[in-house]
Amino acid sequence: MSRIGLVGFGFGGQKFHLPYIQAAREWELAGVVTRSSARREELARVAPGVPAFDDLDALIDAGVDAVVLTTPPETRRELVLAALARGVHVVADKPFAPNAEVARELARASREAGRILTVFHNRRWDTDIVTARSVLESGSLGTPWRAVNRFDLDDPNTLEVGPAHGLLRDLGSHVVDQMTHLFGPVARVDAHLDWVERDGQRVDAGFVIGMHHRSGVHSTVSASKLNRLQEHELVLYGSAGSYTSHMSDVQTAATLAGRHPLDTPDWGVEAPKRWGTLHTAAGSERIPSLAGDYADYYRALHAAVAGEAPVAVTLDEAIHTVEITDAARRSDAEGRSIEL
Questions:
Q1: Which of 54, 93, 188, 304 could hold 212 in an S-S bridge, CB 3.0 to 4.6 Å?
Q2: What is the tens place of the pLDDT at every residue in 129-151?
Q3: Angle 130-132-138 (CA atoms, 0-180°, nearest 5)?
Q4: Which architecture, in CATH terms, is 2-120?
Q5: pLDDT of amino acid 332
Q6: What CATH number does the domain located at 123-293+322-339 have?
Q7: Burial of 215 (C-beta count, 10 Å sphere; 0-12/13-18/19+)
Q8: pTM of the entire structure?
């Protein structure tokens, strides 16, 4: 069994990483880096017997094959470079890098170290995206034309400020990756960002991005945090019809409710009342929810580390996501389309 370590045990480490590492039986959790006494107590409660370490070096010295970096974004570059220099595989939480230049620097370091570096774009395994991908693959929509992916959050208290933060770098990284996962690379970007002042700093609290994919598909992604709206919408348009979905954030809701993927039947399956609908010349048809499971990210990582499969989220894909969010900022600032 391969050994993996978790660096950072805040909200992301506790809710978006630990349960799914535990659910991926291929991995043994070797330890968690956190100096907080409260978080060490929480670790002992949810992962009995898993040791806590003071820093990355101490964790690697204990023996790991891979580490997951889920500390604040401003620490990402330094920790990625340090972990690669120590000869371990690395999962970097998003945002992967503050800009594409740094992303390419980290990719070079990965190649020179001969170790995997990948990004935690877990929302490819969201229930609505997994189900929508199956609809696309079925051919029911004919040739895909357009897509709308809207993810509004009524969550003003979690908007973080600072050069490494903002909603575009946070949730934006995910929804952009979802669309490139479904429709491929992007050639041109048009964007608008909603800016607010928080703690004396200017930060983006919402965005809308139009992406012209090289495949010919046009996708629009948008999100907000301050508009008192909690809604999730995914619409796909094609030559033979459309597909509409208003699924909830199923897995996040389950973990926040205290459930765990190891002991929850039908993990990541949406309730029938929120299933999507396929609209074609034959009529409208409800499409049963498939199961989304973020643990599949860690299962795929293990297969890649073992040399049994390619990495699920490639560095080229991760860099392209950063290129798109960089372009979105430029488009907003300059009021024009940005070619990639």
A1: 188
A2: 999 999 999 999 999 999 999 99
A3: 105
A4: 3-Layer(aba) Sandwich (3.40)
A5: 98
A6: 3.30.360.10
A7: middle
A8: 0.97
